[in-house]
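agent> Task received from the user: take the single chain below, predict its 3D structure, and emit structure tokens. No templates, no multimer pairing.
agent> Plan: (1) validate residues, (2) run structure prediction, (3) serialize to tokens, (4) report one or two observations.
agent> Step 1 OK, no nonstandard residues flagged.
tool_call: predict_structure(input=
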Amino acid sequence: MRRSDRQSRAKGSPSEPTPESQTGQGPDRADGVIVSELTLHGMHCESCARIIERTVSRHTGARVTSIDMANNRLVIESRKGQLEEIRDELREKGYQLLLPGESAVEGFEAGSLRRGIDVLKKVIFNARGFEVEHTLLRYALGAIAIVLAAQAALFGLLFRNTPGFLNAYWSVSLLTAVSIVAFLFAYYHSNAFRKSSSCMTGMMTGMTFGMAGGFLIGAFAGATNGMFLGSIIGMVTGMGLGYVTGRSCGVMGVMEGMMGGLMAGTMGAMLSAMLIYDRLVPFLFILTGTEGLILVVYSYMLYKEFGNMKQQDLRVSGMEFAVLALALDLALTVVFVFGPKTGYVLGG
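)
tool_result: status=success, residues=348
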């Protein structure tokens, strides 16, 4: 629940009933466990049910004993004071646990645009509970600055006097730097929950990274080197990302990720080859923005399912993040600039 909701509740009547008393249930066991039958707004599928059960079980002694998705009802066992905390956490994830007589606030479901923007603001402005995500975001912004500075220095030292070089490569160089950092952010975010991921989440992770990464890098390489090398680079990138990120759920995740990378890597290069004389550069910007949005939604999915990152989940330092981003960017730059070129390409 948002802070403003808590404050308005605190200003209410001193005799205002607690969530436990409003359920009509009281301690019905000798150990003081309260059984509450409640309505839940925003639950749509089995994945929602797992998120809700995991959220409730984080509270010692609390658990969901039954979920009726058809009627949006569930039964929770908890101790005194826990139900309000559970309501707050579920609301943070877009689910509204309603007491008798309460109505749901429309437009605040887990998948709503309003909900996504609210979470994004908390990451950007370092809201309480989002400190680790904010730290990872600062690493990403710092890495972009370092990579772009390195690209500028490389151009000044080696290619400043090369005719047409800047015109041919500025767009791909800029988009490559941004894309690498975006994928690193998403990777380290997903890596925080790798051990607790379900098989379905693991397969989704492998396919997301494999297809998105393969298609994007394949498109960049196809624009600068032609369809043949673009397809090879896209396939290698996509299959590599699919393997690394999909292995959290074993062979199935690896296969999903690698197959997605294989297909998307060739498709990205093919599309660049087809668009070489038809506004290819604007398309690459649109493509990169769309892929970035997909990664943002993916990170939101992780937050919704697993909650906030903990400090021990952040398995990278700012320096390590920047060095890895710089190394990957330089490797791709070498391919784009010095790799063999076939057919029609940017600047050629």
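agent> Step 4: summary for the user.
The beta strands are 34-41, 63-68, 73-78, 96-98.
agent> Done.
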